[in-house]
Amino acid sequence: MNNQTKRKLSVTGVLLTAFMFVMALLPAPVLAEGNVPVTVDIKVTYKVNGNTGAAGGDRFTLTADDAVAPMPEGSAGGKRTITIPDEGSYSFGDIRFERPEVFWYTITREASDKKGVVKDTSIYRAKVIALNDGHGYVLVYKNGSDEKHELVYTDRVTPATGDNNMIIIYSGVAAVAAAALVLFAAAVRRNRKEEVQSETEKNIP
Questions:
Q1: Are β-strands 152-157 and 38-49 bridged in parallel, bridged antiparallel, or unpaired?
Q2: Where are the domains of the chain?
Q3: What is the pTM of this model?
């Protein structure tokens, strides 16, 4: 073995030793063994623009992409469905992860047909990250988007036909009242003018 070959082997050995030394000093990756169980919950917020009494009552379903993904209590077949009766925030239930994992879930809505209510039928994707330090995170996206989003459904209640009729009636009454005030003011001015004219004629010799 010549001197040049010996020098190359020596340099390689030094670099390998340095690499192993640096790796030994680095902290263990987050997704490592030796874990603390993590519990997270996925919440749906429901809002209504308009008459809140005309909305609510629909079913919302959390579906796991992976058949082995942890699910809340009360789930069946990788699905958990809840009914949302009114405005507010509602949880599908606690999801417990025994080890560091990443799972995806899909949130959908069974929108019933209700007259005068424009339903929000968005589909959401939730990415749940469970770390080995006991912390868990839920990242929500609208289906087809890479931007993080709040898990919110917002319905809009349109005025009923009866409400529109009442608006027309009230507008008509207001218009009549305004016209009556104008006529009354004109009559008062005319009477006042006649009184002044009469007084003037009396004072003429």
A1: parallel
A2: 38-157, 161-205
A3: 0.63
